Amino acid sequence: MSATATMVERPPPRARGWPRPRIAGYALVCMWIAFGLGIVAYLVLAWNPAFFAKYAPAYLKGLGVTLSLVAIAMVIGAILSVPVAYGRMSSNRILSGLAYCYVYFFRGTPLLVQTFLVYYGVGSFRPQLSEFGIYLPVFSDGLTLARFTLWDFFKDAFNCGVFAFALNTAAYQAEILRGAIESVPRGQWEGAASLGLHKLQTLRKIILPQALIVALRPYGNELILMIKASAIVAIITVYDLMGNAKLAFANSFDIQAYIWVAVVYLVMVEILRHGVEWIERRITIHLKR
Amino acid sequence: MPAQSLWTLLSWGPDGWLDDIAYGALVTVALALATLPIGLTIGFFIALAKQSEEPSLRLAANIYTTVFRGLPELVTLFLFFFGMPILLQHLIRYFRPEATIDVNSFVAGMIVLALIFSSYASEVFLSAFRAIPKGQYEGGYAIGLSNWLTMRKVILPQLLRIAFPGLENCWLSLLKDTSLVSVVGLAETLRNAGVAARVTKHSFMFYSVAALVFLGLAIVSSFATSAILRSLGRREAQR
Fold this sequence. Notes:
The complex is a heterodimer. By secondary structure, chain A is mostly helical. Chain A has a single domain, classed as MetI-like (MetI-like fold, Orthogonal Bundle), CATH 1.10.3720.10. Chain A contains twelve helices and two strands, in the order ααααααββαααααα. Chain A has a two-stranded antiparallel sheet with strand order 1-2. In chain A, helix 3 packs antiparallel against helix 11. Chain A starts with a helix and ends in a 6-residue tail after the last helix. Chain B has a single domain, classed as MetI-like fold. In chain B, helix 5 packs across helix 7. Classes of the chains: A mainly alpha, B mainly alpha. Chain A: It is found in: Cell inner membrane; Cell membrane. Chain A: Belongs to the binding-protein-dependent transport system permease family. HisMQ subfamily. Chain A: InterPro entries: AA_ABC_transptr_permease_3TM (IPR010065), ArtM/GltK/GlnP/TcyL/YhdX-like (IPR043429), MetI-like (IPR000515), MetI-like_sf (IPR035906).
């Protein structure tokens, strides 16, 4: 036996030549490098201090508008998503039907259409919207009461954007929430019930901590999708990041207006993506073995 | 009277706008259908590159998906629609200085949507590739099939069946993303509805009609995909 074992030769190491995939891979990577260098070279050659001085502050302001729009819409959407998710999971036919229709409408139509529907469409109901008003204290040379109507809310493009985005993300977040809660096994509910916890306590102390781990990645994806989608409010005249880029391009006909904005979005999305991955690694440490 | 005039506005013909919106819906469907094969092909090859053993190929494919999934669709569209003519102009100046370039919004939309669709579809294909056990490849090689034949006869039929639900989602978001091309002037559903809304001042109604068109397309495609899925399942049962 030992004689045959010594006879066996190790296979020679595989030759590291230039098989076809490697040639293709190097060519493609070189293409990307050339592409990246081309863009950098263009930005260096087209470097225009005047352009920068003029539009960089506007871009920063636009970034603030984009972030605040997404943040407000995400928070309102998260609040709205709770009753929708409840409706989706309820055994009441009418309630679950209504919630299903809501989710189907907002997931089945483009966000751009929904935004237009709010921004342009609500204008059709201007007289009705102007009827309802509330008096709010306003600080303009002393404390006075001013009448605010729903129309005052909807005539601002930013508010319309927030409104449409919040409704849209509520539908998606409701599905995320429902999926996450349903991913927790039934035995968890039953175990909690046998311990004498009531439903709300069970949800808060047992179900949600497990469900939110599952939901973290979809929530992160939804946040990224919202940031990307927020570019479309530029079309309804909100001066967010994209809106300022549009303005800069319209004034200067300089394509670097869009290249810079693309870089900012890309960096933002990458930071978020890696941030979510990092958080997920941190909070699932106890599940790894 | 207003109720009657609303019906006239929604009628088919010179007074109504339904024919314009129907034409727009046709353009929407055409754009999505024209994008689909390109996007599927690119996405498939990107997925192949991502699961290859060659690190440089994986790197190139990962850059592709990072870029096109990270950029907002609208930014990609604008970069392409406004940037491509400038680039082509610079290139063509060396050959024919007098030529001018105009990018067709349908073609620009098709290319941009294919880039975006393919980067999402590649992830779907990749996870489907991972779901196929290694033994399937080895079995293919063991009976003497070439690389290409193994891929076509053994892997691809299983791959499509596994990837189908994910691809359906990609298709639905492609259908919705076509509305963005209206911004660069393609006369599709949303743009025609917008024209009608501006002319008639019935914005809410016409944008609702546009929303209903997209909803209808989503419903039709869900029927179509469930039919395809059923036939795929039947074929699996026959084997």
